[in-house]
Write the structure tokens for this entry.
Amino acid sequence: MTKLAIQAGDLHLASRRGLVYGPLDWTLEEGHLGIVTGPPDSGKSTLMLTLAGRMRPSRGSRLEVLGHQLPAAERWVQRHTSVTGVAGLDDLDDVVTVRSTVRERLAWLAPWYRIVRYPGNEQIAEICRLAFGDLPVPTAKTRVYELDEPSNLLLRIALSLASSPALITVDAVDQLHDLSDQDTVWSRLDAIAASGVTVVASTTDAHELDRIPWTTEPSHLDLTTTDIAEEA
């Protein structure tokens, strides 16, 4: 029997100025890739946070993530999901090394009494294996500002996978300026989903997705088909 990672009905978020996103109905199977598209200010980032239990939808919404209803089970969902790519939320410190960045993440995940040592190249390669695949993994001594755009985003994705989440969200893949870099990240997200981790990612333009040779055709949620309104 197919298990659903996301089951949403009449899902919406309203502010005093009107609807931020929705209302929308959407389902996504576990271990699949879901892609959310829509123009700027269509609520993509907010929806990513909602699906990961970091933001509550408006009353009347129905949302079940990984078999748990939100917002009632938001703490459980937060422990089993991760968020990447949201501006200001998971930005990396440019001046530190990759090993310092990885150690900080591992220390955050470890029990308070455990000493977390700085990782070497081998441990970093293992942590980055799923996110990077066959792509070159940055070395321990590489500083974050030396990473190119796709490597920076893939490192952030690798850090989000360090907690072994069942579902990850990746916002604004089109924050990468080069189309070939975007294609690289989409291919890696496709591979991550194929490994069994449910992935929800967002971008502005749906047409670019036709370029990718998907392992399994992703589920597409287009926010331009929902009624986004503002009060005068």
Observations:
- The helical segments are 44-51, 74-79, 98-109, 121-132, 149-161, 179-194.
- The radius of gyration is 18 Å.
- Strands lie at 4-15, 18-29, 33-37, 62-65, 68-70, 81-84, 167-170, 198-203, 219-222.
- The longest strand covers residues 4-15.
